[in-house]
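Final paragraph of the annual report: two paired records, presented back to back.
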Amino acid sequence: MTNASPSRRNLLKFATAASALAATGTIPALLQSAFADVTASPPPASLPWHNWSGGQSCRPMMRAAPASEAELAEMIAHATGPVRAVGAGHSFSPLVPTQGTLLTLDRIAGVVSHDAKTHQADVLAGTRLSRMSIELAKHGLAFDNMPDINKQSLAGAVSTSTHGTGAEIGSLSTFLRGLRLVTASGEIVDCDAKTKPDIYQAARVSLGALGVLTKARVQARPLYKLKRRTWIVPVEEMLAQLPELEAKNRNFEFYYIPYSGMALGISNNETDEPETPMPVNEDDDGLRQLKMLDDWLGWSPSLRRWTIQKILGGMEPEERVDYSHKTLSTDRGVRFNEMEYHLPREAAPAALREIIDTIEKNNIKVFFPIEFRTTAADDIWLSPFYGRKSASIAVHQFHEWDYKPYFKAIEPIFRKHEGRPHWGKLNTLVAADFQALYPKWKDFLEVRAALDPEGKFLNPYLKTVFGVA
């Protein structure tokens, strides 16, 4: 085959870049170089970005989808910032928006190796949790827990201390055994508990402020099945049984349905029973029905309560058996904005009662159920679970409605009970607040300043979080 002409080479480069654009929804660096070769005129304006809920958005100067760690390092070394990485865009707080460079790791994804003896695996940081679960399962492996949504990238999940539920199980960040990241200078750094331990401790939950994660060594376990059970009882009955439910179930959570007095419990426990057929996911239909009741009966909380209790009263408990990653995570089609705080476990029931009372006495407009979960303590510097067993309470607002009045009414209750906000979810805290909540706050700031002295990875929101002028 003869050598391709310059014009043909440019066409091939353009076609390759366009394919990446179609696959990732962003503009890789390769596309920009292709434009530079084809024409001297300026490249087109960058595509706008918004998160899953639509609550956060930006129009960065550059969007990039590097295909390799080397390409990523080169790009970061020459970027002027602020550089922010995005996964699925499932964070509700302003962690991502930037007027500088927005990059995705969608092309740096996949499970690259595993150890059958230690059950550890090396996973590229752009891997979505759903894909990671499927690939690990092919090797007979699974995570010890999963969040209730699995669309996030691994990097995004661990950087925000994403968690599932289970009184004795930690967040996803506790499953890490080693990390690789690209720093502001373009240096590639490997770290673990013995090698650069301070960087490792900071990077396990970093908000993307230390650099861009490219690979993680994760601790998995042999593939296992769970029996998932759901049931409905009055919320006071659920709260009275809470210590027993948390102690006797591997995974337990419940949802309070506003204006109903009723709670939906969900437990998952290990089993060797055969899998049962996966039922049709009716969660979105249920939410639409709750919204319809708000539309029709929002003017009368008592009538709304009576109606919901009549609908739920006849529901029998349901059970199903499947592999863990299929029972712990569900699809969410109805979009929302969310605020979640992690409280000392002993304070959570009282906080939930206050939240319910505040909503229903003030007739706050909401139909999304309130989520209650538990997580084990850990020793990660910026983990909301640092040093204490926690219970998490999450409130959600329909994405088309203004969430601010609802969240403004609820956040003081979280703060009264010494709650720490989920890093990926909405809150109004600033640097002084976080410093009071995190014993290792200053240690993290020292590592951050050493790795990124010019603040290349800090967007305006993170400058507020870390108190950087």
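The closing record of the year follows.
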Amino acid sequence: MELDHLFIRVQADGPEGQALRDFGLIEGSGNRHPGQGTANRRFFFNNAFIELLWIADAAEAGSEQTRPTMLHERLSDSTASPFGVCFRPGAAEERAAFATFDYAPAYLPPGMSIGIASDAPLSEPMWFFLASAKAPAAWPPERRQPLQPHHGLTQISGIRLTATAPLSAAALATGLHFIPANEHLLEISFDNEKRGLTQDFRPHLPLIFKY
């Protein structure tokens, strides 16, 4: 598996995204997810993207179809992890490394589904897998999004998360780096941190860039 994108819980309409814009990131297009009740703002890099996600329609987010994802709880409960991590197949892999159930929201094309980790508690990120996903730099021209020309941020080269509780089997299967802590925090490394610089987006977002 390889990283496809990350989501971070934000307030309605994602005002926290201004902190990323002030840093110099170029924002791509946002989405509304019909039937799922969520909407986003997105920032793209060559190999992955960051999604700021919120509830746009509480009834849809709490619907029978969406309920198994626990997105309503994840995006409305301040004690839940504010993160989600989506993976896609690596060069020789087709399946998720963790046990999943299939979720087929209305906004996906017919026959396409998302594999969502079966046993991830709210204390850790939502883990999910999209078998058809590709790196943003490989998207077709009609879907292509602006990538980042500033600060030399081209590739997400690693992520590190804090763990506020014992890890599930799904979290361990991701192979990601976790550190024990009492608060939720996501650190994203770009281009192997070759410039040796850090940008801390707290208190706007529980997010640190290392580049």
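The domain at 2-135+150-210 is CATH 3.10.180.10 (2,3-Dihydroxybiphenyl 1,2-Dioxygenase; domain 1). This concludes the annual technical report; the extension proposal builds directly on these records.
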